[in-house]
Amino acid sequence: MSQISKNEISQLDEASQIELLKFVESENAKAKLQSSIHVFTDICFKKCVPSISSGGVSPTESTCLTNCVDRFLDTNIFVVNKISRSMQK
User: Fold this and answer.
1) Is 1 among the domain residues?
2) Is residue 57 part of a domain?
3) In angstroms, rounded to a whole number, what is the distance separating the alpha carbons of residues 44 and 64?
4) Which CATH number characterizes residue 21's domain?
5) Rounded to an integer, what distance in angstroms lies between the CA atom of residue 54 and that of residue 3?
6) Which among 82, 86, 85 has a CA at the least distance from the CA of 74?
7) Suppose 16 and one of 12, 49, 57, 77 were both cysteines; which one would form an S-S bond, judging by CB atoms 3.0 to 4.6 Å apart?
8) What b/e sequence results for 31-52 when a residue is b if at least 16 CB atoms lie within 10 Å of its CB, and e otherwise?
9) pLDDT(1) > 60
10) pTM for the structure as a whole
């Protein structure tokens, strides 16, 4: 992957700079989401699947995994909303 210098970016017209900024923000958001998915997978899999005994997960393990990820998502949404409200004050 090639690097773009600040000088090269400053040579772009304003519309291109805005488009580039939006693209970078979008890619950063995707990277954060992917990172969260890896964290959820790691934590929930270790918690819910103590050993691998077959080619799939049992119904109990599946329920545990679903609940685990749901709690992480609920917690993240709660924290984001709390931070958002505190920033508005």
Assistant:
1) no
2) yes
3) 8
4) 1.10.287.810
5) 46
6) 82
7) 12
8) eeeeeeeeebeeebbeebbeee
9) no
10) 0.59
